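Work Package 4 report. The design task specified in the project plan requires that, given a folded chain encoded as structure tokens, an amino acid be chosen for each position. We show below one input record used in the internal validation round.
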């Protein structure tokens, strides 16, 4: 079990450890994101004797890291954009010698980096008109004003700075009463025998009524950096990297929160530095709208435990070492979807359904023999909203076990063993009762139209019998009770179809019978096929219920065939 040790050191001691490379950051740490104002406020808090929160350190040694576990050194310089926010910050990954480097920072990176940059680093600001490519940037320096008469304090503003601490990019025009905070590191301030004289030299140009104020500020600045142990930290001993990551996530659950995929990518890059570049080559063209999460989750399915959300070294190594095979699997999946006439890009934001297919293709060279079962799985997963009801990791784990038990093959028999995938009349009835406006309706209508839908067109849900007719007066030969029932049925699937956007705009609120009568025989035949209109049924509005029930029956047959298909070739 991990041990916790409480301790404290001075700012200078912490900065020296960073400078000497004894303190590093785990590769899963986020980028430096602080603004110039946040750094100013940090120093203001220090001089006000405010606590700057406890730091969390992780002791690293041969027992919890390996030679190929990567870390990051602290920044030596930073460039702020025109909004004074740190930008273009890229850490370099490095392995460490744990006989020398013994501490990784789990919580406090932003604060320690800010202190280090203020005292030992270089800061720049990029003007708003400057382009990143030309590298134009201006040196900026953190100063403290020693003339109390020049300090403007907004008493009305909550949490305003009390000291005149501010960055300036006009370094050549620094006034004699402005003191560069990093100048306190000069040897003459550090030696007790020369410190007082050094302070008096600095304040020689400060107005008389501010000399005592300035003298106290410099003494306080010295004490805060060199004397007082204000870097209070908890050091964790004997903790593995996976546990360190979990603790890091918990400590970063507030404030500027890291998203899960950002943390996971950082971990992966710690084991495989070129991972992001390689991912980028995949996430173009066919997979351009997919996220890195899709690749990570697929890797966990293939090489590790898909019920975990964090990648580890073993999975990272397997993904790196089998990268060519992994890429080929995604290429093969694209070809498979083309053969099934299904647009793969529909799954960019709902990629979970694809992961079992990735698993099957990767481990089964004869996966194309399972094409019908794979398509059936996909349609059932979509129609039954299998992954939308939560428990995704457990469901993927269950499917992985079933595929393993069926010799790495998809089969309809296998699907029928899983209650959530089993086809029942009740599930089909639920589908038929779906109402206009839901994405579920889009999905059902899309798969019903696989043999004619053009992926280059945008389709819209449309009423066959227009909704506007149900908002008017009821037909004279329809009872009030029947009219109420008709109105409840008007938005359900049996009265809906997909219509290409421009055509839908021209159709507008036309009566169904009039819309069909405007077509020639070829157009009408095409419309009946695509809209799944029953033959020999009246399209007059007075026959709405007869039309509804006849089309519902036809839809039920077609949905049943999608969910329980007979053997066919692609």
């Amino acid at each position: 079990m991990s041990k916790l040790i409480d301790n404290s050191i001075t700012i200078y001691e912490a900065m020296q450890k960073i400078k000497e490379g004894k303190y590093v950051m785990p590769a899963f740490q986020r980028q430096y994101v602080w603004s110039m104002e946040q750094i100013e406020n940090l120093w203001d808090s220090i001089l006000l004797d405010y606590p700057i929160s406890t730091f969390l350190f992780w002791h690293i040694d041969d027992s919890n890291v390996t030679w190929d576990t990567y870390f990051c050194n602290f920044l030596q310089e930073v460039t702020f954009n025109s909004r004074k926010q740190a930008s273009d910050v890229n850490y370099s990954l490095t392995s460490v010698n744990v006989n020398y480097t013994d501490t990784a920072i789990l919580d406090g990176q932003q604060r320690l980096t800010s202190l280090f940059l203020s005292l030992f680093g270089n800061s720049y600001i990029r003007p708003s008109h400057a382009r990143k490519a030309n590298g134009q940037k201006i040196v900026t320096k953190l100063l403290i004003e020693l003339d109390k008469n020049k300090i403007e304090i907004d008493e009305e503003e909550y949490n305003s700075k009390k000291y005149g601490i501010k960055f300036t990019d006009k370094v050549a025009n620094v006034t004699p009463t402005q003191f560069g905070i990093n100048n306190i590191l000069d040897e003459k301030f550090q030696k007790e025998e020369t410190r007082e004289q050094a302070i008096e030299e600095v304040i020689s140009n400060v107005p008389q009524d501010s000399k005592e104020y300035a003298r106290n500020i410099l003494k306080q600045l010295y004490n805060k950096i060199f004397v007082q142990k204000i870097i209070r930290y908890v050091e964790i001993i004997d903790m593995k990297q996976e546990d360190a990551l979990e603790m890091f996530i918990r400590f970063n659950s507030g404030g500027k929160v890291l998203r899960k995929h950002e943390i996971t990518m950082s971990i992966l890059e710690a084991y495989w530095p070129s991972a992001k570049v390689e991912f980028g080559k995949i996430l173009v063209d066919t997979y351009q709208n997919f996220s890195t999460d899709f690749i990570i989750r697929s890797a966990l399915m293939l090489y590790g435990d898909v019920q975990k959300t964090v990648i580890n070294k073993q999975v990272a190594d397997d993904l790196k070492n089998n990268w060519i095979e992994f890429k080929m699997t995604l290429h093969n999946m694209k070809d498979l979807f083309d053969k099934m006439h299904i647009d793969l890009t529909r799954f960019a934001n709902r990629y979970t359904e694809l992961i079992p297919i990735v698993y099957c293709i990767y481990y089964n060279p004869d996966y194309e023999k399972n094409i019908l079962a794979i398509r059936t799985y996909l349609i059932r997963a979509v129609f039954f909203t299998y992954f939308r009801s939560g428990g995704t990791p457990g469901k993927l784990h269950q499917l992985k076990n079933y595929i393993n038990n069926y010799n790495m093959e998809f089969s309809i028999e296998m699907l029928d063993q899983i209650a959530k995938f089993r086809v029942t009349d009740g599930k089909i009835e639920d589908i038929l009762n779906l109402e206009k406006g839901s994405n579920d309706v889009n999905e059902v209508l899309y798969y019903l139209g696989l043999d004619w839908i053009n992926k280059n067109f945008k389709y819209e849900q449309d009423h066959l019998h227009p909704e506007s007719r149900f908002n008017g007066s009821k037909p004279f030969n329809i009872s009030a009770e029947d009219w109420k029932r008709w109105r409840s049925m008007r938005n359900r699937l049996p009265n809906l179809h997909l219509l290409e956007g421009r055509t839908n705009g021209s159709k507008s609120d036309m009566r169904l019978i009039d819309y069909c009568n405007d077509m020639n025989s070829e157009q009408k035949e095409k419309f009946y096929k695509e809209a799944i209109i029953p033959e020999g049924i009246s399209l007059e509005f007075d026959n709405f219920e007869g039309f509804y029930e006849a089309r519902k029956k036809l839809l039920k047959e077609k949905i049943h065939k999608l969910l329980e298909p007979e053997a066919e070739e692609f």
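Residues 3-234 form one domain. Validation will be extended to a larger panel in the next phase.
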